[in-house]
Amino acid sequence: MIDPDHRRLLGQFVRAHRERLAPDRSAGRRRTPGLRREELAARAGFSATWCAWIEQGRDVQASPQALGRLAIALELSRAERAYLFEMAGRRDPDVAAPEPAADAPASLLAMMTALVQPAYGLDRLWNACCWSPAAAQLFAGWLGDGRQRNLLRYVFLDPSAHVLIPQWRDSARRVLAEFRADYGRNLADPRVGALVAGLRRDSELFAADWDAQTVLDRAGGVRVFEHPHDGPLRFEQYTFTPPDRPDYKLVVLTPA
After folding, report:
1. Is 222 part of a structural domain of the chain?
2. 182 and 228 housed in the same domain
3. Mean pLDDT, the chain, as a whole number?
4. Same domain, 231 and 134
């Protein structure tokens, strides 16, 4: 069920785009702009009453298939179609996940060259795809020597992570819960399932927490480290998603 504000915005959006469409030339003289509700309903293959309820912001349960037909009938662009599904609280079945890329997106690489603080890019498997020199110094066991590029496998399986992260167990659980939010969006990638299966096999803590089904957004906040050479360090963490590759993310740590 979507909340009243989303229903209202969805209704306003559908009505505005219906009124922008040019009617058939045979429709004759008209007092209202664009298509009538009956005409939009006929184009999309549903009833005019259903269309009216959507525009009125009623609690209508629209299936992804019905929303797809509505998007086609309204002649929506890709961004407009995504907004329609977002307001309806549905996932678009016709939007395929981006294909895995061998290299980091150009947008992440460009940002990395401009950053002096610790920063790194993650792909959909949470492999580090690029990082700053300061990040390699901070995460020497992960990014510095090339032993392990996957953040999850580093946190759960590398002994150096226990030293670097003072509250390791709590932090590992938070990292796993944040990864699970991405996991649900990448189920079609068989590599994601293989990563989870391997971690369940190799880490009892991962297996137990995975079965707990905890999900968290990748939030920012203070991150504390106990560096073997630089001593105690505190950073504020920020995470950004490049619009051209939403399956990647940029993580930046600024001194706190």
Report:
1. yes
2. yes
3. 87
4. yes
Q: Is residue 80 part of a domain?
A: yes
- In angstroms, how far is CA 68 from the centroid of its own chain? 21
Average pLDDT over residues 158-176: 93
**How far, CA to CA in Å, does 192 sit from each of 12, 182, 238?**
39, 10, 24
Residue 158 contacts by C-beta under 8 Å, 6 or more apart in sequence?
141, 142, 147, 148
- Distance, CA of 15 to CA of 3 (rounded, Å): 19
pTM: 0.68
Please answer whether residues 195 and 211 qualify as being in contact, where contact means their C-beta atoms are separated by less than 8 angstroms: no
For residues 122 and 177, membership in a common domain is answered with yes
- Distance between CA atoms of 160 and 170, rounded to whole angstroms? 16
174-192 pLDDT per residue, tens: 999 999 888 877 777 888 9
Q: Are residues 72 and 150 in the same domain?
A: no
Three-class SS state of 21: coil
Q: Residue 121's domain spans which residues?
A: 106-255
